[in-house]
Write a structure and sequence with these properties.
9-stranded antiparallel β-sheet, 4 helices, single chain, globular, alpha+beta
Length: 296
């Protein structure tokens, strides 16, 4: 068992689909902040502004940039993130799927809609985890997760966030999006007041979202998405988000390690792979196809 997470935290993640990890990346806050600022100065092809005309504030997000941002390379390869991810997944390895930067500037009223990540991804398997790490203190604008939603029998229908249209044509394959706030007796919502460097770990199938940022402070967050030993490539009814065009994987195959490197193995320790993935850099801009992405 890793010393980074306790047996109680592993059980909570397995049972609830989300767990709070105080101080997991506290020593990496300045590095992450610098990486976020670099990302905002030099946005990638997937960068998006997620507000409609007339909406207040600024809601910026971008993903699939870690291999081009030196600060993020350091976090991926040398921080405790990958080892903690492997422990929570109960996996021998942790393989990077992608990174994600999410910034809600002061006075941003727009909420992040409830959603699961799994329907947008081409990943099957139970060993999946996202680490959501703020670099500013957060209270009301923290990540919110619905306990146990990772065990629902059907995935929630994914939608495009700006147009609110179905992401895939076969909507019957998915369950309708519930409203946890309207039925608090039915859904147990987990959320935590967080300090810079704390983390929330959540399963790809966990329903999650976030409120707007009504404070006078920024709400900057960095997320890393990992997969474990049982993760394989899966097809979806349409183009996935991120799409990773040209990956050439077949259903049931492990994710190719030259695109999605293994950065932790219990046999070899952290930082075993120094390869830089070319997957994201080869992808064209998705625009509205991205499904909105934030808190994902």
């Amino acid at each position: 068992m890793s010393l980074l997470v306790s047996p109680r935290q592993v059980r909570a993640f397995q049972e609830d689909g989300a767990v709070y990890l105080p101080g997991l990346l506290a020593d990496w806050v300045e590095v992450i902040r610098a990486g976020i600022e670099r990302n905002m100065r030099e946005p990638g092809p997937y960068a998006a502004e997620n507000l409609k005309p007339g909406e207040s504030g600024r809601f910026f997000d971008d993903y699939c940039n870690w291999q081009h941002i030196p600060e993020f390379v350091e976090v991926v390869q040398r921080s405790p993130a990958a080892e903690a991810a492997a422990a929570l997944m109960q996996s021998q390895t942790a393989q990077v799927f992608h990174d994600h930067v999410l910034v809600k500037e002061p006075g941003t009223a727009k909420a992040t809609p409830w959603h699961q990540d799994a329907p947008y991804y081409f990943v099957d398997g139970d060993q999946t985890v996202s680490l959501w790490v703020p670099v500013d203190p957060v209270k009301d604008a923290s990540l919110r997760c619905v306990a146990g939603s990772h065990r629902w029998p059907k995935l929630v229908l994914p939608v495009r966030w700006l147009s609110e249209e179905s992401f895939y044509p076969d909507s019957d394959a998915y369950m309708a999006l519930p409203d946890p706030d309207a039925e608090p007796d039915r859904y147990r919502v987990l959320e935590w007041e967080m300090q810079p460097g704390d983390a929330v770990a959540f399963h790809y199938r966990t329903l999650h979202g976030a409120r707007g940022n009504f404070t006078t402070q920024r709400r900057r967050a960095f997320s890393l998405r990992f997969v474990g030993d049982d993760a394989t490539y899966a097809t979806r009814p349409g183009r996935t988000s991120p799409p990773f065009p040209g990956h050439d994987m077949k259903p049931g195959q492990r994710l190719r390690e030259d695109w999605f490197p293994v950065v932790y193995s219990s046999r070899l320790g952290p930082g075993l792979s120094r390869r830089e993935s070319s997957a994201c850099s080869s992808s064209p801009n998705m625009g509205e196809d991205r499904g909105g992405g934030s808190e994902r």
